[in-house]
Design goal:
Blueprint (H helix, E strand, L loop, with lengths): L8 H7 L2 H12 L4 H14 L5 H7 L9 H17 L1 H15 L5 E6 L2 H13 L18 E8 L3 H6 L7 E7 L1
Antiparallel strand pairs: 1-3, 2-3
Length: about 180
């Protein structure tokens, strides 16, 4: 997202320790075997640095099943991209700013393209938090900055047919309280 980023994919793959890689692949790619993938990367880079996506793909071969190879690689590359671009932190900053930028009654409309983003947006709209439980007042009420408007909006079959990239889009709308 920024050419001035201080972090590169090369650094993530070749310098992160086992726990960092495991967390990255588990949290950003929803890979249940994230620890094994991290171990394989660490083992391979002890021999030589991993310098290309082809080399990474070769290292990951034991985890790539013919029918799901593309999906698994997409998840791994997504996790690396999210980390390099700090996309989750940027989204959190943006959501926090919307509280101050929008006037009462203003609408917040967000399109997310993967479950990690969508969970974050959904939780923030519902509770005003990214994690943990909101504090309740004496009467058991919680104070939230937004109220959900309508339900989740997803693309129609026709829209997906016209634009296949729309298939994972989810639109959430909220009004500032």
């Amino acid at each position: 997202m920024s050419k001035k980023s201080s972090l590169s994919a090369y650094e993530v793959i070749n310098e992160y320790d086992h726990e960092q890689l495991k967390k990255l692949f588990y949290e950003y790619a929803d890979l249940r075997n994230a620890g094994k993938i991290a171990s394989e990367i660490i083992k391979a880079r002890e021999v030589a640095p991993i310098e290309s996506s082809d080399q990474l793909k070769e290292v990951l071969k034991p985890f790539l099943f013919k029918e799901k190879e593309h999906k698994i690689l997409a998840q791994i590359y997504q996790a690396i991209r999210i980390e390099v671009n700090q996309e989750i932190e940027v989204l959190k900053e943006f959501l926090l700013q919307t509280e101050e930028l929008l006037d009462k009654g203003g609408r917040l409309s967000l399109i997310s393209y993967h479950s990690l983003e969508d969970r974050l947006v959904k939780r923030y709209i519902r509770s005003g938090l990214f994690e943990g439980e909101p504090e309740k007042d004496f009467y058991g009420n919680i104070s939230v900055p937004f109220k959900k408007v309508k339900g989740l909006i997803v693309p129609s079959a026709e829209e997906i047919y016209k634009n296949n990239r729309a298939r994972s889009a989810k639109l959430r709308i909220a009004v500032k309280l």
